[in-house]
Amino acid sequence: MSSILSVSQQSHLVSSDEEPDDLFTDPPWTDKRIAEEMLRKYRFPNSNTNISVSVSVTIEKIDSQIDDLCHLQLLVKQKWMEPQLAYKNLRDSIHPIKIRNVNYIWNPQLAIEGIQESQMVGKDDVLLYSNGIVEYMYRKKIDLPAEHEMWSFPFDKRNCSLNFGNEDVRASWTYLSGAHVSEHESPWKVVESSKLGKKLSVNLRRSLSTWLWSLYIPTTILVFCSWIPLWLTSESQTSRSVLNATAFFTIFIIVLINLKEIPRTSYLKAVDIWCMIVCVFPLLALIQSTMVSSAAYKKRWQQILKTDDNEEKTRWLNETPYYAQLPAQRPKSCAKIMDYIFRVALPLTFCTAVCLYMITFIIPYSR
Fold first, then answer.
1. pLDDT digits (tens, 9 = 90+) for 253-275
2. Which residues form the Neurotransmitter-gated ion-channel transmembrane domain (predicted)?
3. Closest by CA position to 57, among listed 178, 204, 153
4. Which residues neighbour 362 within 8 Å (Cβ) at sequence distance 6 or greater?
């Protein structure tokens, strides 16, 4: 009897020693195996199911095209709970697994109202957590109308409003859980952003650095240069003409280059008015220089024609008294009078025009 018990005890010990070895015979669950197992058993929710969704939007980039549209690149994150996709019983881990395509499972199908054109950027990221939470991230470029007018270009502002919704009625959400605008190099500066419910509004202001260095500063300097001939003598005909013509045609070329890519409108824009100002004043200086040169040229011919009378004058000058030979005070020539007038009128008028321009466009822009 004791031998039988000892044999049974030994067999029990052997079986108990073999049981732990049986627990590790199956390999651990990999991400691929878990995803395949979940998708194999997965069924799309019923049409009457309400799934709570969390939506977060980040504006990553604002493109620099010159038109009346907002060109944005968005990073959209959506989260929701799918009990069918929980895999705690297979592997409880804080690290999610990835799915290659979001079409394998249900998704909220987020939509943005009023988009004229959209394009996906890069690949989607679909992450599954062990508790059944699904995180779906994607990047998208969109073009949508902006609330603004081009009349103050390039001192213009615009309001880009994004109204979000979803095409699937099973998605239940009432507001954006997060809305951000990332800092990046762009021709637009974000003045203010706000979210209300499913709407995200972004107020933008155009950056002036490019336009200042390519148009406003060079043309202003050239306008000042066009006034240098006003301080030269009327006999310096060639120098006056060359300086004025160079300043005017250089400004004209700069204006044509900058206006080349700006869309045309039925009304004058701020940049059009500035181009008119910086072209008119050098043109007036060029016309004045031409008139002064013409007057000096006529005066020179008159002096040449009078050389024949010099011999006859010298005869009777010897017979006249000394006080009668004193030179009479000559009246100022028309060329000098024009120089005096334009030296004051052109700078004063230009400064007045610039001040009015600043009051109309620059001060409202800076507010």
1. 999 999 987 888 888 999 999 99
2. 215-325
3. 178
4. 155
